[in-house]
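pinned: reference chain
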Amino acid sequence: MNKQEARAIYRERRKELTERDVLKLQDLLLIRFQQVEMPPLHLVHAYVPLEESREPDPEPLLRWLKFRHPGLQVAAPRVVPGSRDMEHFQVDEETTWTVNRWGIPEPFNGAAVDIDQINMVLVPLLAFDRNGQRVGYGKGYYDRFLSACNAGTIKLGLSFFEAEESIEDTDTFDVRLDYVVTPERIYAFE
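pinned: its structure tokens
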């Protein structure tokens, strides 16, 4: 399967999910996520999901991480206008949000985050394979961001669906994930 095919198939599979399906899968995802062995965490970067795309919501996972790692800080991205890069800002209950041109909420305020301080990135994806390659939305924002993170940063994808055998058209700039958590299992890649 190539990336274009994967995008089409998994967008359609998400559309077929009912609200009840999403709630059930989200609960199962949290249960499975709680089984991932993690080092102490201080700063976790998370995407903000598009509700209408039925994307896994990292918020319940972040609440659990904050319980397990007191003092944990959370960061979220904001696209740099006119570029293919993202900036990263600390977010909390005081954060105000704006919506970008793709309808994605972004932090409007908050302290800028040094990406070298990020311990874990919760990565959005449409599909992934058994080698840890992900298929994103095709703009390359996360590949550029993940390639700039330090080597010890845990790159963890979230998916309601299981792995494809292989994504055929991966590029040298594609950044492999360390883990993907699904409602069914934890995929660990070396």
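why pinned: The first helix runs from residue 3 to 15. The chain has one domain: 3-188.
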